[in-house]
Amino acid sequence: MKTPFPSESEDIAVHESWFAGYAERQYALCEGDAGPMRLKEQHTRAVLGYARRMAQEEGFAPHIVRACLLAALYHDVARFAQYLRYGTFRDRDSRNHGLWGAAILKREGRLAQEDATVRRLVLTAVALHNRYALPAALPDDMACVAWTVRDADKLDILRVMDEHLSGPRPYCPTVVLGLPDTADKVSGKVLEDALQGRVASYTDLRSVNDFRVLLGTWLDDMHFACSRRLFAESPHAERLLLGLPQEGPYAAVRACLLRRLASVRQQSARPDGGA
Ligand SMILES: [Fe+2]
Fold this sequence. Notes:
This protein is mostly helical. The protein folds into 2 domains: 13-152, Hypothetical protein af1432; 170-269, no CATH class. The chain contains 12 helices and no strands. Helix 7 packs across helix 11 and helix 8 (188-195) packs parallel to helix 9. It binds fe (ii) ion. Fe (ii) ion binds next to loops.
């Protein structure tokens, strides 16, 4: 039976309960600490929440809304198998979890009941959600769903990182990508990107402070007014930047990124949304 829309486009309860059952089955297979997998389930629910908010606020067409919700729910479905098989979430040391996730969805027949257009949009967004950049020639509807998942993913990564970096040291190497937490390692490229309003790259990071800056530059990588506003309003974004040293090489970039957050917040608070 095909899923009718628009009236039921936002009802993905069947998928959510399958996902919860799938996660439970994966936990049962884990002989060690299943904690990291549980964090991924929690992350998934937060990303779904952000995607739902964005899709509704941006007024997407019903089939796009449905694809956004399903892609958000399933974007990290491969994380469970990845952790069970390889004990890591690093794609470089295991497998590309975006492509793997799309393969799992096909194998499990998760989208068989969906409209063909929705199915294609979801599989593409899941497969591409973790790419550094999206292919330039992506059709508009595919780009819209992929951007929604990527923005929602980043919004919750702010929470994950803030919660971790606000906690006790030493930081978990997995979370901080093995970067040293020292004041003397500074990436000039990351600082320059941030000051120029460019999105910094993971490959240029040299320290945890650089990582804080990179997360701050994601404000300029938000693709919708809604996600941009949610980013600027995020207490996590602000706290991550406030954690940068107020003196020395990070001082200017700290002030600049905090100013940008405040400016977007002010624009969003205006009745015309800053238009
Ligand atoms: Fe992911």
